[in-house]
Amino acid sequence: MSRKFADALNIDELREIARRRLPRFAFDYVDGGAEDERTLSGNRASFERLRFRPRTLVDVSVRDTSTTILGHAASFPAIVGPTGLNGLQWPDGDLAIARATAAAGLPFAMSTVSMSYIEDLARATSGRLWLQAYVFREREISDRLIDRAEAGGCEAIIITSDFPLAGKRERDHRSGLLPKQEFPLRTKLDILRHPRWVLTVARNKPRFVNVERELGPGANVNSFVGHNMFDPSLDWDDLARFRDRWKRRLLLKGVLRADDAERAAALGVDGVWLSNHGGRQLDGAISGMDALPEVMSVVGNRLAVIVDGGVRRGSDIAKAVALGATAVALGRAPVYGLGAGGEPGARHALEILRDEFDRTLALTGCRSVADLTPDLVTR
Fold this sequence. Notes:
By secondary structure, the chain is an alpha/beta fold. The protein contains 16 helices and 12 strands. The strands form 3 sheets. The protein has an 8-stranded parallel beta sheet with strand order 4-11-10-9-8-7-6-5. A two-stranded antiparallel sheet has the order 1-12. It has a two-stranded antiparallel sheet with strand order 2-3. Helix 1 packs antiparallel against helix 16 (332-363), helix 13 packs across helix 14 and helix 15 packs across helix 16 (332-363). The mean pLDDT is 93.
């Protein structure tokens, strides 16, 4: 008998429940990385290398996990980051995660290739919505999406810089999801072994509805994995243009070098997002956590610093914040919860992480987020 998601004690257990519930191709889309997946495993290892040096004899009977991210309150130092094809995990998967995120008191960053409309997600998140923007060859498309984000009350946009073309995601090629959704017999048979998924999810073919609205029907997953639409010529002049055009909060995602972070700060971005795209792009790249000390040495407190990649425990969040991060971005963790149990499963994932973060505060001798300082962490 499969375990219920509510019985899961940690994110890895939610991952296992999702793995059992989903067809392999749908699970591998979330779980996998590029090529030999060294970057993917390295993201996790970058947290595991760090150890705590806890303070003792500190009264931690009252603790506060809350913080401020881009000028707004958050229940703990995290955002739920952008992930694609959430509708393969659960019907209306993007809306389910958005609602779970809002209930947790965190901002939600939607993907350009979300399967739910910007306007619907804005309502579900009560305004704490960020748009992760891929930049199209036809810049008018990007401009129209940004206009819709503004009209919908989006708090921030995130310019994605680490996607000049797609990484080689071999699990997705083996399953047939890439490059043309032409599934081999083994994938089809595996899908049929998951009748509940077929009845609830498979009836809704993946559609990137926000892009379809701009391009018309036919803008499906094949258009994106072929990358005929995203612009590999994106450069610093483009970032300056987006800064001039967007008057709200602007972040640059895909930064892994101090000099790039400093240049972004000089252009007036409000935050840099240290990311290797969850290990799904360049195999062999350093992790956001590896880049964090170098980046903090040049940007200090001038702008927000978000770190993603490999966050599976609340203690990971504490390590990132202690080394200077404003917050972490959660990618796979809430999606494993979604795959295990829909919106309640995603809520459970966020509850697990918040509880673990609170517990880590107490066990390291910290009463609040402000008490997490670099001296608490060592290699």
